[in-house]
Backbone:
């Protein structure tokens, strides 16, 4: 038997791995091709395909509605942009209130517990309705009856409950020895939290919060139920106007253009953090 | 002059007694080494002196003040007692210099500029001048531990406690950390140290205490405790580790 002659400059392991990689790529390409071909060939055979194609994937309507929908999406981005920082701050207040140990401040702690329980327990859309219709119903003068204000408040209140819990998990993930080190130097408990624990905890929860904020960007569309003509509502207007569902597909694609890169970035951050910790 | 006095210290976690009716006196400028097997109560004792762990009973006196009074605010007491940990516990998000400056900045309300001359001098004395702007994960274990010692010294404590500060180090890095302690000793710092470095204890300590089951079974000058231990358990421990 003759041994295979090794290629110059490569170990046997490298040769083996290169070969396995090539084989993997070929198999993955073939199986993907089969599935795509099946979808492309089989779906149009469905009896309703032509009707669906006309009402959901109408190229002409796509091009006609896209600019206006993109413009409406800017309103979603704007609502997101003013909600996100307020959530980040308010959630931190809630998270810190939950860890208060001073008996005189017990009401704060009770408030924080009830707050997170209530707002994590009610569907977002319900909070949007209750606050978005309820508060302006008090007969407030302009501009205080604006659905932008109260709809945004509903999102801020709900998302802060989740983000507060993320902050808390971050705070608890910092090892007790860090606090001990700060206290042993004679620092106060609040200084230990502010300068030693929080900076580390906040960094650690960035990826988890990224995911929350991606969800927030999507949930901004819920405000369409109480008035603001953002992308979902604009798509609804077009749907009624043109008797066609294509605008909804356009809206979905616009959302994906933002959320997919953001999700990938969050995954990248998580992977980076896991590498750093191992 | 007696600096630190411990009387009848009792400490238990749940129903496990960790320190059992322990007495100890530390004279000013003395280096006291606590030796004994893992779990004999050395670390807990140091954490109790720094008030990180409240004692159940007994009292601790620092320079005539009963610091074990449960009603006492521990913060000013801890400023007078430095504690260095086995696992360094540097703040990983701060440079070495920021680690050292944080407590004096917050507690003594000194600015970075006011602190810099003294702190640079400390870094220089312990051979770490080039590492002031480095983060802990850029430093070796021995360098991290020396930064941790500087961090405790920056508060100008009257007494320093060391909790097995060389146990997490690679053997070749132990020497540089022990050298720091020799310097502190020469300078007259009062120190209590839990350690497994018997050679070092023998060389530098004024008093060595052998702990077992949360009690000091035997104590004395190193030549006596290492040379002629009286208790059977001390003899057994020493012959196992030496």
Residues:
């Amino acid at each position: 038997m003759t041994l295979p002659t090794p290629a110059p400059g490569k170990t046997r392991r490298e040769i083996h791995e290169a070969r396995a990689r090539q084989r993997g790529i070929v198999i993955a390409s073939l199986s993907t091709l089969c599935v795509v071909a099946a979808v492309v060939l089989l779906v149009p055979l469905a009896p309703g395909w032509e009707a669906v194609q006309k009402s959901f994937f109408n190229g002409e309507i796509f091009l006609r509605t896209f600019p206006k929908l993109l413009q409406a999406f800017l309103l979603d981005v704007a609502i997101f942009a003013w909600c996100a920082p307020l959530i980040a701050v308010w959630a931190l207040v809630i998270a810190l209130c939950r860890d208060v140990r001073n008996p005189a401040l017990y009401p704060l702690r009770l408030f924080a517990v009830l707050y997170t329980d209530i707002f994590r327990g009610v569907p977002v859309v319900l909070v949007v309705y209750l606050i978005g219709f309820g508060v302006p119903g008090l007969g407030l003068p302009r501009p205080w009856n604006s659905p932008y204000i109260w709809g945004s408040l509903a999102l801020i209140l709900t998302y802060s409950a989740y983000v507060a819990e993320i902050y808390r998990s971050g705070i608890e993930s910092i090892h007790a020895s860090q606090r001990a080190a700060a206290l042993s130097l004679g620092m106060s408990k609040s200084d230990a939290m502010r300068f030693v624990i929080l900076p580390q905890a906040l960094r650690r929860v960035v990826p988890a919060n990224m995911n929350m904020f991606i969800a927030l960007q999507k949930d901004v569309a819920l405000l369409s139920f109480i008035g603001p003509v953002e992308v979902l509502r604009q798509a609804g207007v077009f749907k009624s106007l043109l008797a066609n569902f294509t605008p909804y597909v356009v809206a979905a694609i616009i959302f994906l253009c933002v959320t997919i890169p953001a999700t990938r970035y969050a995954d990248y951050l998580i992977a980076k953090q896991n590498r750093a910790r191992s | 002059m007696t600096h630190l006095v411990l009387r009848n210290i009792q400490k238990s976690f749940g129903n496990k007694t960790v320190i059992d009716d322990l007495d100890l006196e530390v004279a000013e400028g003395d280096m006291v080494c606590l030796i004994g097997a893992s779990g004999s109560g050395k670390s807990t004792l140091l954490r109790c002196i720094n008030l990180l762990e409240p004692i159940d009973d007994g009292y601790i006196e620092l320079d005539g003040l009963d610091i074990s009074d449960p009603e006492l605010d521990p913060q000013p007491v801890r400023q007078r007692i430095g504690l260095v940990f086995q696992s360094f516990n540097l703040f990983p998000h701060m440079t070495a210099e920021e680690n050292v400056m944080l407590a004096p900045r917050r507690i003594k309300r000194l600015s970075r500029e006011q602190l810099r001359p003294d702190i640079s001098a400390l870094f220089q004395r312990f051979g770490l001048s080039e590492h002031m702007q480095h983060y802990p994960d850029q430093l070796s274990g021995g360098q991290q531990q020396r930064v941790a010692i500087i961090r405790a010294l920056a508060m100008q404590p009257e007494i320093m406690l060391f909790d097995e500060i060389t146990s997490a180090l690679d053997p070749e890095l132990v020497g540089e950390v022990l050298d720091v302690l020799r310097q502190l000793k020469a300078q007259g710092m009062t120190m209590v140290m839990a350690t497994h470095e018997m050679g070092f204890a023998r060389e530098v300590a004024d008093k060595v205490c052998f702990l077992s089951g949360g009690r000091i079974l035997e104590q004395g000058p190193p030549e006596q405790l290492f040379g002629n231990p009286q208790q059977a358990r001390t003899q057994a421990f020493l012959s196992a580790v030496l």
About this structure: Residues 61-277 of chain A form a domain with the MetI-like fold fold (CATH 1.10.3720.10).
